[in-house]
Amino acid sequence: MSSIKIDDIARLAGYSKSTVSKVINNYPGIPESTKEKIMKVIKKYEFEPNIQARNLAGKRDKVIGIFILDKGGLGSYFFQYIIALIVEKSEERDVKVLISLIKTSEEKIRIKQLIDNGTIQGAIIIGATLDEPEIENLIENEYNLVMFDYKTEHHSKNVFLINSNNYNGGKLAAKFLLEKGLKTIYHFAGQENKLAGLEREEGFLDELDGNGIVSKVLKGEFQLEIAKKIFTQLIKSGDIPEGIFCANDEMAIGCLEALTENDIAYEKVKLIGFDNNQISRLYRPRITTIGYNLDKMADKAVEAILKLIAGEKIKTNVYNGELKLYERET
Fold first, then answer.
1. What are the angstrom distances between the C-alpha of 130 and each of 35, 150, 184, 194?
2. Closest by alpha carbon to 158, among 323, 330, 314?
3. Residue 260: pLDDT band with limits 50, 70, 90
4. Name one Pfam family in it (predicted).
5. Tens digits of residue pLDDT in 180-210
6. Model confidence at 72, in pLDDT bands (50, 70, 90)?
7. Is residue 211 pLDDT above 70, yes or no?
8. Cis, bond preceding 241 (omega within 30 deg of 0)
9. Fewest CB within 10 angstroms: 95, 270, 316, 329, which?
10. With 60 as the cut, is the pLDDT of residue 92 above it?
């Protein structure tokens, strides 16, 4: 076995140690010509990356990956909070975590590469849309995965689904507004290709329809600024509903900001969000919202991925969050 080190590979190939490391770990965005030169040197000197050496020695650390699939980045309060909780639950079990933001199809391939090369043993994926061929490929090939708010037609014993009970949450939001005696009720929906947005909208509209109420649906895309812009336009046109259900707390804040900036008291519109993020409790006025035990969901995610990695059987491969209505000032 060669005793050559990564510093030697970098020197012989004519690249930085960082670039060599990225090639070894299949990072996206590295030119093919660079990869070829570095891999040629690696093969010539039979270089063995440290992680492979640890695997051969039977001393591999437990490492799981957290992958956020969202073009908007990590600006979402939900993403920030769930990542922090998963890291906390992992540390309690002496498990290391690799966190990665995935924005393109090319980057999604990296999940498979990181599992294949032994960098991680399993993945927790958050924010996937319903049209993810790269994710479906992982499921079909029985990679160890925990998926948040995802639906698949493929049945795999290596996939654990954690859902936010979105449909029932949408119904609960509608019931809350109906019990206030409201008739004009609008909905700021999430992204059309994400399960959470679709099911929250479906549950909300079904409950309203059962009570003879037709709602206007506005595409807020789970984004504060988009919801704020749309609601500002409605306000200026004189189209102000009695109640609004936003598919997440960020959009609820966007609606509140639109009211404030147009000198309209927030009490004029009954507003309810979804997720019970920390910001919904800290923002003033405090936001009424639908929430679930995110701490428990994070714990379930880490517990499940470790069982899958260990090859243990899981009685049921789906966990639905327990819902609760938090009535506050809005």
1. 32, 7, 31, 6
2. 314
3. very high
4. LacI
5. 999 999 999 999 899 999 999 999 999 999 9
6. low
7. yes
8. no
9. 316
10. yes
* Both structure tokens of 209: 């329809």
Q: Scanning the structure block, which residue is given the tokens 């509209």?
A: 205
What is the rounded CA–CA span in Å between residue 43 and residue 250? 50
The full DSSP string for 149-212 is S---SS--TTEEEEE--HHHHHHHHHHHHHHTT---EEEEE--TTSHHHHHHHHHHHHHHHTTT
> Hey, what domains does the chain have and what are their CATH numbers?
4-55 (1.10.260.40), 61-163+292-321 (3.40.50.2300), 165-273 (3.40.50.2300)
| Amino acid of residue 29 | G
- What is the CB neighbour count within 10 angstroms for residue 5? 12
Residue 304 near residue 261 (C-beta atoms within 8 A): no
Residue with more model confidence, 208 or 49: 208
What is the Cα–Cα distance from 218 to 109, expressed in whole angstroms? 33
